[in-house]
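Task: fold both queries, return tokens.
Query 1:
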Amino acid sequence: MLASMERKPATQESILKAENVSVYYGSVLAVGGVYLDIAKNKIVAFIGPSGCGKSTLLRCFNRLNDLIPSARVEGRISFHGQNLYDKKVDTIEVCRRIGMVFQKPTPFPKSIYENIAFGARVNGYRGNMDELVEKSLRKAALWDEVKDKLKQSGLALSGGQQQRLCIARAVAIEPEVILMDEPCSALDPISTLQIEDLLQELKSQHTIVIVTHNMQQASRVSDMTAFFNAEATKDGKMGYLVEYDRTEMIFQRPKEQATLDYVNGVFG
């Protein structure tokens, strides 16, 4: 089971791998035939126009699509070589080791302290909670701003602070991978840059996959970039992976004309 899987040392080997992955909603093919390797301690950006399947694929990596009754995943998604969709896999353990930060900041309606402590308790943490809360808030570059108001509601923070609180909550349970679905889309430019700086610090201990519509953000923060596109079908749109390469190659010397057109703003 995933819970007993041995952790591997940091290498350039894949931590996550998608092999011929397709996602259906009922009979509708939403994303088709994706092959993708994600290396440990890298930041990978998913870019592409709306409706091309970026977020759909992202949610496959920690099985959030399981919450949608009509969703079906075909192909293989592996984590440290183990099939995430094997019937023996503990989905709770998947969500612990592969965390998620959503587009809109979603702090719990609890104190700043409890936003961190609650998830840690649920996941069985038995250490010094005060130390964990401080450590997590420091990792999210938020400690100095909130250390004197830990008993105040997390909902009282600014939008950028709320998103960093959500990141602190995610890192508190020490996931190996953090998935981020447009985490800066609702934030102002200053808060966005704070999140981007934070990502560079976090990747020394975590692998990060980020969906973004911001081309400049993808070029600034990511090591690898995957460009997705969509084509019209009789049922709507089908997303597919066009090109996946080092970020500098995607933005400076892409192999595909569609990639070049997108990063230069010709469409999308």
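Query 1 returned. Query 2:
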Amino acid sequence: MLTRDQATTMLELQASMNAKVDPDWVAARYPYLRAVAIEGAEAIEHHGWKWWKKQDKDLPQLQMELIDIWHFILSEVLLRNENEPEEPLKALLDALQAAEHSDRIEVDGQQFELAELDLLRKLELLIALSVLRRIDMALFAAIMADCDMDWTELYRQYVGKNVLNMFRQDRGYKQGTYLKEWHGREDNEHLVEVIHRLDADAPDFKDRIYSALSEAYPD
């Protein structure tokens, strides 16, 4: 499960990113779970579902979709617990704790055993619950496991993507002066190397990522 420091970092990063997109994002109350439903459908496409043609599961793209889905889940958690500063963190940690002891989901009176479902069925359930404005951390964790991810890897990739986005903005991404490729490699490749080199349990993980990117970037 995520540590308290990791959960805190993710919520802070998500709130900052939402504010960068729209300073009034809390008042706007965007339909973040609708976005989860759409991303879930995109994940199904990356998995492959068409019985009339050959399709191969694209695991890296599936993992990227899960990172995007997590952005929207965090945003919904922040919105639902906006009244007190500590409420989003408590809600997230409580939900993750409860997920460790949950192995089934009930939808419209029907019980679904997570262990009996394949990845496609789990993604379908994720979409259904999102449409019903429900978040189920046990289901999300089961989907992660099917995509060869644990919470530490989710944390690494989520924080890395957020920090890279901030780094790009600070280096002139919007103005068109940012260099997407350094020393013969794209910035995403540098990021992957950095996040797996650093200790994800360190409280200043996000700051270390930013520093490492700064050192590598050709100013």
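Both queries returned. Flag for query 2: The radius of gyration is 18 Å.
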